[in-house]
Amino acid sequence: MRAPLSTTLRDLVAKGDSESPCSLNGLLDSAGEAGADLVIIVLALPFCLPILPGVSAPFGLAIILLALRQMLGKSGRLPGFIGDREFEPATFEKIINGGIRILDRVERFSDSQRNRLPRLAKTRFNLFLVFLMGLLMALPIPFPGTNTFPAWAIVFLATAQAEGDGVLALWGYVAVLFSFGWFLFFGKLIWVLTAWAFSEIGALIQ
């Protein structure tokens, strides 16, 4: 049985040099078979917790690229402007430690020991959903929750993919549905407010 991703992350932190900056491509190289899924999770983490604000567009793009490469059966690799960017040790450590806390919570929902739904865990459909959630994250929409809910869906689905856990995939589907519902709600709200504003302006002009 493959080790949980939280354990993999802890091992990588224990082996790394805390005085040196780290990069996402470096993490991809170090994490082995679970590298792409692990980096997708790390990229989604700043939106599950308020760790690193203002990076939704580049991190969302990176998630999109990694999901596409996985769907095409290619190895995970990010372009240099994202993947080779070096984070300061304190920043990277903050992200990784946040990742460990999130994964510890997510793995409480895990069913990897019984493995009752293995076929749900590793499908191109899941990768396509990760792609869609990355796209939602990359959109410049300044409303609460429009990054947070897609990020949680990504974490559940990528963890399911890495650990072969169909139950985590089901939780990912729930988070995806909630994300779409949230976007539809705010879309409707914007439509209603815009229509109301135009009606009020029209009344003032008359």
Outline the fold blueprint.
Blueprint lengths: L4 H11 L8 H7 L4 H14 L7 H16 L8 H4 L5 H18 L11 H4 L2 H15 L9 H16 L2 H40 L1
Helix pairs in contact: 1-6, 2-3, 3-4, 3-6, 3-9, 4-8, 8-9, 9-10
What amount of the residues lies in strands? under 5%
Order of helices and strands: HHHHHHHHHH
> How many structural domains are formed by the residues?
1
- Overall mean confidence score, pLDDT: 77
Total count of helical runs of at least 4 residues: 10
Distance between the termini: 72 Å
Rg calculated over all Cα atoms: 19 Å
Number of strands: 0
Largest sheet: none
| Molecular shape | globular
Structural class: mainly alpha
* Poorly predicted ranges: none
Q: Give the proportion of residues in helices.
A: over 70%
Q: Can you walk me through this structure?
A:
- The mean pLDDT is 77.
- By secondary structure, the chain is mainly α.
- The termini are far apart.
- The protein has one domain.
- The chain has helices at 5-15, 24-30, 35-48, 56-71, 80-83, 89-106, 118-121, 124-138, 148-163, 166-205.
Summarize the structure.
This protein is mostly helical. It contains 10 helices and no strands. Helices cover 70% and strands 0% of the residues.
